[in-house]
Protein: Zn-dependent hydrolase
Amino acid sequence: MADNVSRVDGTRVLADLHALRAIGTYKSGVHKPTFSEPHLRSLEWLVQRLPEAGLAGDIDGIGNVLGASTKPGPKLLAGSHLESQNHAGWLDGPLGVVYALEAARVINPDPKIDGAVEVAAWCDEEGHFGHFLGSRSYVGAVAEADIDSARDRNDGRTMREALASAGLADRPRVQAERGRHIGYLEAHIEQGETLESSGLKIGIVTSIVGIWQYRITFTGEQNHAGTTRMAIRRDAGLALARFCVAIDDRFPASCGPRTVWTTGRITLEPGAPSIIPGAAEMLFQIRDDDPAVIARLEDLLRAMAAEVDKQGRCSVAVERIRTGAPARMDASFQQAIEAASAAFAGGKSLRMPSGAGHDAQILATIMPAGMLFVPSIGGISHHWTENTADADIVTGAEVFVDACRRLLVR
Amino acid sequence: MADNVSRVDGTRVLADLHALRAIGTYKSGVHKPTFSEPHLRSLEWLVQRLPEAGLAGDIDGIGNVLGASTKPGPKLLAGSHLESQNHAGWLDGPLGVVYALEAARVINPDPKIDGAVEVAAWCDEEGHFGHFLGSRSYVGAVAEADIDSARDRNDGRTMREALASAGLADRPRVQAERGRHIGYLEAHIEQGETLESSGLKIGIVTSIVGIWQYRITFTGEQNHAGTTRMAIRRDAGLALARFCVAIDDRFPASCGPRTVWTTGRITLEPGAPSIIPGAAEMLFQIRDDDPAVIARLEDLLRAMAAEVDKQGRCSVAVERIRTGAPARMDASFQQAIEAASAAFAGGKSLRMPSGAGHDAQILATIMPAGMLFVPSIGGISHHWTENTADADIVTGAEVFVDACRRLLVR
Structure:
């Protein structure tokens, strides 16, 4: 470790994170929906920091910030995102951006290191307008028509309107220059409690799970809640509730060790207290890093729906509306993170899949990619109470910067 | 029956119902929310019909139409409502108004009958702005402050705005003149399938059930749907689904023969596909004509909630938000309907409670009240397919008019 001093400035990292937290503060977290004023100010903040790291860049035509280096040698791309979920935490996104910035500040001016870290903030990772529109734009997977049709799920504003009012409508979208980068590294809070409950400091991500999403629709018969006897009802809401419970009872026998499933939204039609619901819909999601497990669970889901149909009281339709293949993280990136953890985190690391989606899964489609996690207190995220201990934030920064160095000099 | 000819004009009754169906037509039903243009036109239509029945009246300051007679002798009040649920049927409401109008047309000009039928259309029986605001205003149970705070559940428009734009803001509200009426009679479609499935033509309502309504709120922990292991989740939506199923499993052992219960609306917070719901709410309703049965079921509901609380994963709060005592129908009104059914419906009648609420329950708080039902095809109501056979509509009119005559001449 003698020649391997990180020179990470932990105070500077924390100060940067607090500077971003001060933009769009909500309780102890932030509220920065994509293209909101606090989000745009956060992007400007990053643009103004880039020169300190020997980088130049601006906000592009889809709201990405990309800081490019003119230093010769290999380039490593690193970053995350700066918008937040609604009324959410201060670290989900900014942590990865500030780590990347710190790595660039440490590595880029260092003449002993051949190569540079380039910093990215990907727009809309949190999906206010779509799925990973910023990173997907960068890898060339977003057409103009996708932008035409994108709308803010909060208020229905079109993405075109949002880009225009942010003054970004006429800017080009920066796209990946093939061969420019040796790969992409992203840090993130774990958003789970595995690291914390095991006393570990660094998660080495092996893969990002796939997300399969379903719209499950129940059709019964709408009728008057006062005059229709219980015996003859065809209550779509009750059929849905029974289905939710059946999933919870039956999935455990068929799932993998880390499978998760969630019913995030339920809608009854017409939704009035005096009317028996004639239709009901649930949004249901399964996540696993093994497509075979997902396939088995989808078969079970469809078999369960067929059983309900057969009982004849309500009919059920299962529609898959999102299919996300798992993304494998590059083996050499995992090794670099593990070696850096040994050097700066006492080896308190664990290889683990990511249950959440991240921009790294998009970058992984065009270059080697890796991710590291730091612990989340109580496993909480997507909530304003989300937090990580200051010491863990600094340790994470040291491991991250060292992993970047190892990837550039290997 | 020789001196008991109804002189009901069945063709005229059907023509009137079709005239009202032609205002605000939706498929084979109507869409006439309270104070919508089609609702106001329907009220105007009724005002223009009143003189044919020897009545005079107008739309009052809450949207009621009241047709008064100057004929000496006893007065019987009769009516129903002209607005509809959204995208609903053509008979729910108009049937009772047109029967009342027909009774007035037959009885009021008849010098042999001492007394008159007065016709009412009560505003907002369907509860777009509140609960029975029209009939409650008439009996003196609506304060100006109640109107100030009433809003359209469809679009949030205040009742004051709706009254102003209908030109009703400055009109007085007509209130009941104590002692003027011998009672109130209302006809309605059954909205259930008891009459149809038994081959009967007339339901003689014994009581209108009470409606107890609850807001049941589940509190768990909002978290990320990808990173939070199943074992440690506190999913409020799943707790709600299990509670719905438990109600359905356990209520039958404690309920009465005609008790009904319904979960009409479910809301998960925040309602996003990738977030485990931290809170969930259901609107739940119990109806019975026996308060003791309701009390027993409410005890069970609270005991079940305490069991969920005790398991410790999610907490449950049960809040009663509406308490409606059952309304008994007057015995002499039931006898009059039964005698009229014997004369005009071959005695094919049944005494039965009403599972739905009606304006008659409000009028019953200040005068004797009665209701009769005609069959509903397939038991369907609050849906545009709602219907009753023409022959049953005409038979119902004959029984209704004869019951009015019997009540006036007794």
Summary: The first strand of chain B starts at residue 25 and ends at 26. The CA atoms of residues 79 and 120 of chain B lie 5 Å apart. Chain B touches chain A through 63 residues (CB under 8 Å). DSSP finds twelve helices and 17 strands in chain B.
